[in-house]
Amino acid sequence: MAETATHTDHAADHGHHSSTGLSNNKLAMWLFLGSECLLFGGLISTYMLYRGRVQDGPHPSQIYDIPFTSVSSFVLLMSSLTMVLAVTSAQRDDDARTNLWLTITALLGATFVGGQVYEFTTFYREGLGFTTSLFSSSFYSLTGFHGVHVSVGVIMLLSTMGIIKRNKITGNKSEVVELVGLYWHFVDIVWIVIFTLIYLIPS
Amino acid sequence: MSTETQSQSHDHGMSDAGYIKIALILAAITALEVSTYYVDFGPLFMPSLMIMMVVKFVMVVSYFMHLKFDSKIFSFLFYTGLGLALFVYIVALATFKFFIA
Amino acid sequence: MAIIERPSSEVATPAVVAPSQALGAIRRPVATKGWREWLFTVDHKKIGIMYGVVAMVFFIVGGVEALLIRLQLALPDGRILSADQYNQMFTMHATTMIFLFAMPMAGAFANYFLPLQIGARDVAFPRLNALSLWLLVAGGLILNASWFLGGAADGGWFMYAPNSGPVFSPSNGVDFWVLGLQIAGIASLIGSINLIVTVLNMRAPGMTLMKMPVFTWMILVVQFLLVFSLPVITVALVLLMFQRSYGATFFDVSQGADPLLWQHLFWIFGHPEVYVLILPGFGIISEVLPTFSRKPLFGYPFVVFSGASIGLVGFGVWAHHMFAAGLGPVSVAVFSISTMAIAIPTGVKIFNWLLTMWGGKIWYTTAMKFAIGLVVLFTIGGLSGVTHSVAPSDTQQTDTYYIVAHFHYVLFGGMVFGLFSGFYYWWPKVFGKLLNEKLGSWNFWFMVIGMNLTFGPMHILGLQGQPRRMYVWTEARAGEGLFNFGFWNMVSSIGSFILAIGVLFFLINVVITARNGKQAPADPWDARTLEWLATSPPKEHNFDRIPVVHHLDEFFHRKYEEDPNTHTMRQIATGEELIRAEEAAADSDIHLPGPSYWPLVLAIGIGVLGLGVVYGTPVMVFGAAVVLLASFGWVLEPSVPEAIDYASPDGDGHSKEIATHG
Prior knowledge:
The complex is a heterotrimer. Chain A has a single domain, classed as Four Helix Bundle (Hemerythrin (Met), subunit A) (Up-down Bundle), CATH 1.20.120.80. Helix content of chain A is 73%, strand content 1%. Chain A has helices at residues 24-50, 60-63, 66-91, 95-125, 134-165, 173-200, and one strand spanning 17-18. The longest helix of chain A is centred in the last third of the chain and has 32 residues, at 134-165. Chain A is elongated, with a radius of gyration of 21 Å. Chain A starts with 16 loop residues before the first strand and ends with a helix. By secondary structure, chain B is an all-alpha fold. Chain B contains 3 helices and 1 strand. Chain B has helices at 16-38, 45-64, 72-95; one strand at residues 3-4. The N and C termini of chain B lie far apart (54 Å). Chain C is mainly alpha-helical. In chain C, a hairpin with a 6-residue loop joins β1 (560-562) and β2. The radius of gyration of chain C is 25 Å and the shape is globular. Chains in contact: A-B, A-C, B-C. At the A-B interface, β1, α1, α3 and α6 of A face β1, α1, α2 and α3 of B.
């Protein structure tokens, strides 16, 4: 009975023999993203239920700045492109290009978060606090959760850049970038849904 | 039933130029979406927005996230989650009579 | 994320292994003895045992809470517990039993046996496995700390809002409940991802999905249920936390909120959760029944597919917990039908188990008794469940003791009996000793009689009109005649103490076995699945040689083959012989993950971060800092070994390197 043995050559890549032929980490990431659909679905549903319930404070139509949010949506969308380019650069083993695209992605992501912060503070000044109404609580919870996810993504991008620079990725470098990319794109597609359902469809 | 793990993504089917093209399409759709704020789409408003949202979503998942070219197992894991989310939340909202105009 | 560690080759004694340098900054924990061996381990077997110990402790805590409830209700005008204390008691009893006993105990079995059953050496992400354990401990401590910090949660385990909001539940009890569950939920989510990837990717060569043991299959379905249902309760808990701690109005009716939002979010999680609770027990008896019937499981594909169907349809029935909430006739009808539908795959399993035993040569070990007990008692519980699915009938039953009877039959008679079956079945494999069968018999009979005396009368009490969550009953309400509230409540309370004695027998059995038990043979039950191809207890690396699988019930088929003339099975090897053959052909280069500080540190950080919600921003900031530190430490911990070998602790001359998949 031939044994597909674990092997001694660690200088090569991890060469894991997996029953599916797929990477453990990638399976884990897709599972995680599948479960995140249910997380954001819950927050989006709460918003959809409560968006017309404005006991106090401004109504969505009175407060949303569609042109502004459109620009920041575009920024996040483009960051997905730069993320993909980072992944392909990593797959070509081009550290310099990978670094460049990761930097740009992080910058675009930070810009998006900055835009969110600006939006929140503007809304707050215009009378929409977290506890003002059901609409406001739901809005801030949903977009706040999303913003935190983007921020965590930016941290992951910067950390990835850091460990690539220090040559501390011992396993599959392009896979790490790819996995960060999957997370990043997910955050983008959640925003695609949020932008349409929350901003563009008036309540 | 063991095979070597593919450390590289296999046949992309997508060059950098291809990704840029996808991004341009996505940008165009986004512009069209935003235009619904300025232009009156009439009864087409809701359906076209929903379609555009879904198209963008699926495009990013299939191309940028490479799901179209990767093993079907990944698609199963992700779309099961998405499907369950859509199902439970639409049903829950329905009990709130959310979809009744 | 394999952790690779290669201790120095100069070490002569196998007991202590020299540290390797991790970035030159922090050394990895390397003590292989003592409490540190357990605190920093990433070995699935040790983690499984720790899960089991933690779960057992909470079983006793939850059991004491139950006994207090039964004492209070034994007589009219009970004065053991005040109304407020009673509310805390039933809330914590349920929460503890579900989240701190049942799920972790199933986790103990899954952690220990899933890798062994699929022929693997560990799970896909060993450090994440440890993290899940320590997060559970953190969550359980936070939840139960509430007893000492102003009162426990008192809104029922389903914590309906707005009752659970700040106005009606002003103490910190609910806050600790929210935090404890959130943290335990993260533990389970991480664990579910871990085990799914393990099953998908780490099966032994030749083990297709349809050659996996049923226990592994049921655990796999459970993990899918968890990975997709936990985020929903996460949302519910977050909304409640925002309301309680930050002034949001999600469940404030005066602000226009709808209380049904909580109910939907909770039960969309809560219903799959009950299948999370029962399927491991189903999986365990699907191993036990064939073994002690000396027959293969009847209809393996049906058992597998019905398990998967239960998982899937389980996402479509949640509003049957809301039949009396005012959903309207359409919603009620739809969910009534889906609830009836889910009885079908469950029934399929019952028939498969019965047909497994039919015509078999039954060996009445304690494990087998508990397994048969599950089949009978779960059927009773399932039948009352079917009566609940009929919405008009449920309107009478809901919020009465009839419901309490139903879920205790399926949970205690089902899940707990399944777990106890697993204890007696697998104890020799885990600890190398057989639990005493005579004590096991006492354990079983006291539990069966106690359980039926406790929960059987509750059907009657419910139909007589005793509501749930009622801290006291009076003579005036007790009804006419001899067989009224008074009679049945007393029977139930006596039954609960008989049940408790049964559990005590188990604990005595454990202690006596630890002290006096003889070394068990490697294959005491002549079992069928791969975990029995390991020694008792298994070596640290599980299998000397990763087995190549050709059959379902591979281990059985290596011991028995079919005689072509008589068409009966004849034995060609014993379990011991097979294990010795494996030792002779052992792999020369075996990789195992190394221990790590970071799972424990990260769990502590997350716990502190959560406590910041109750105790203020400085605490939160400190917790976040620890989380950040631990995350970076974890990620930067080397995953590739340095080029040194060491003599194996087993002294068998084979080098034991470290590396698993991922």
